[in-house]
């Protein structure tokens, strides 16, 4: 198919539009998805428009369609619901979600509005928006219905759907996610509307039990890695999966003795180890969670290397590796960090079951166990060692004296499982 083109003296408002990329004046090569589209400004407003993808691929015929569309708009006082724009501030439901996805992906045309969220969080928010669109689709054409025409009844229908599909915690997350979607349209895209999700009844969430792992349970899991059948038979087609990885036991011990999050531990490097003037060793790593939420670089967290953790590091080659930039866990890795994270999580559950432990615990409970024992020593200062600190490091080898004293105290006094904490 030939690429569509516009003459130099084109008719006002006509553009080339890619239906696949959802953009005007595309630079892609999806020529089969190109169409002409006309955008008409609504008199008396600053940015509001009406738009229509034109059927004809012949420019002269497309101009006739555009003129007829303008006449129709004037006759209906610009109240038509034929909206498919991905620009301006009046979108169909589908195009609004596409625009939100671009925004979450850091593709805002305005620098001050560029969003910095993880890809997983972006996918989750868009998933909630798609569920809302599916709910709307039962009674409306989501490709032509304007986002400003979402009603309280539409919210009610979705509320009931979410109530039947989600636990209270996920229900609240879902409704708040769609509420944020409309906040984006109102605050960033400047669509003139009220947020239909501004008020709704949140679900009460019962406080969950914080289950830590005992020394006996943890040792049983490590033993199971050596003795329990590593093959897991999955449901459905009966697929068989080998859950064993040579780095599992070291990985579990690192999680327990550092209290870090998955991405922090899997990507730990020997070069992340620093030493204070008094000789106390500690990890200094980027506080990724806080940095993302605040969109600020240069935030760090500090993990004291106590005697138990140092013994593990010695086993893993501390003296040979301490000045290298190698990963501590699985240094010769041939897979992505995310793959290792997932393997650690799933294998922990597999071997926990293999150890005969009925308690509902997972890999993240090792972090809870660490924090529980740290609190025994640090009390009010616990937050300085559990990624809740936002203190900036002024120079590479120096940290705030208050933080340093806490790290040194932790390195000397913290014992996971108490005095007899050998693993």
Automatic annotation (TrEMBL):
Gene Ontology BP term (one): DNA recombination
Swiss-Prot/TrEMBL keywords: DNA integration, DNA recombination, DNA-binding
Spans through the membrane: none
SUPFAM superfamilies: DNA breaking-rejoining enzymes
Classification via PROSITE patterns: CB
Keyword DNA-binding included in the entry's annotation: yes
Residue ranges of every copy of the Core-binding (CB) domain listed in the record: 91-186
InterPro entries xref list: CB (IPR044068), DNA_brk_join_enz (IPR011010), Integrase-like_cat_sf (IPR013762), Integrase_recombinase_N (IPR010998), Tyrosine_recombinase_XerCD (IPR050090)
Domain of life: Bacteria
GO molecular-function terms, A-Z: DNA binding
Family per record: Belongs to the 'phage' integrase family.
Annotated protein name in UniProt: Core-binding (CB) domain-containing protein
Organism: Flavobacterium agrisoli
């Amino acid at each position: 198919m030939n690429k569509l083109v516009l003459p130099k003296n084109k008719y006002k408002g006509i553009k080339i539009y890619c239906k696949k990329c959802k953009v005007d004046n595309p630079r892609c090569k999806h020529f089969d998805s190109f169409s002409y589209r006309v955008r008409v400004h609504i008199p008396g407003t600053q940015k509001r428009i009406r738009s229509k993808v034109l059927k004809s691929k012949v420019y002269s015929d497309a101009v006739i369609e555009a003129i007829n569309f303008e006449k129709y708009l004037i006759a209906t006082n610009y109240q038509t619901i034929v909206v498919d724009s991905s620009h301006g501030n009046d979108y169909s439901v589908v195009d609004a979600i596409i625009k939100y996805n671009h925004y979450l992906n850091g593709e805002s045309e305005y620098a001050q509005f560029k969003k910095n969220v993880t890809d997983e969080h972006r996918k989750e928010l868009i998933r909630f928006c798609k569920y809302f669109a599916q709910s709307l689709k039962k009674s409306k054409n989501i490709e032509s219905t304007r986002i400003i025409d979402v009603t309280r009844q539409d919210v009610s229908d979705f509320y009931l759907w979410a109530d039947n599909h989600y636990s209270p915690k996920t229900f609240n997350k879902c409704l708040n996610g769609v509420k944020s979607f409309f906040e984006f349209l109102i605050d960033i895209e400047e669509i003139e509307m009220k947020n239909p999700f501004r008020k709704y009844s949140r679900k009460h969430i019962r406080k969950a039990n914080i289950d830590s792992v005992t020394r006996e349970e943890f040792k049983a899991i490590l033993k199971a890695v050596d003795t329990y059948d590593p093959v897991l038979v999955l449901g459905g087609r009966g697929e068989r999966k080998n859950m064993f990885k040579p780095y599992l036991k070291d990985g579990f011990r690192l999680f327990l003795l550092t209290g870090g999050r998955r991405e922090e531990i899997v990507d730990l490097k020997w070069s992340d180890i620093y030493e204070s003037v008094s000789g106390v060793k500690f990890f200094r790593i980027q506080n990724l969670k806080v940095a993302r939420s605040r969109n600020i670089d240069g935030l760090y967290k500090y993990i004291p290397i106590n005697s138990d953790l140092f013994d593990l590091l010695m086993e893993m080659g501390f003296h040979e590796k301490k000045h290298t930039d190698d990963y501590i866990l699985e240094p010769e890795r041939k897979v992505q960090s995310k793959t290792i994270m997932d393997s650690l999580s799933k294998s922990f559950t597999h071997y926990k079951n293999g150890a005969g432990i009925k308690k509902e615990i997972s890999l993240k409970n090792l972090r809870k166990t660490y924090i529980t024992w740290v609190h025994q020593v640090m009390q009010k200062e616990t937050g300085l060692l559990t990624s809740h600190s936002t203190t900036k490091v002024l120079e590479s080898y120096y940290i705030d004296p208050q933080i340093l004293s806490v790290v040194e105290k932790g390195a000397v006094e913290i014992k996971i499982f108490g005095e007899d904490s050998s693993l």
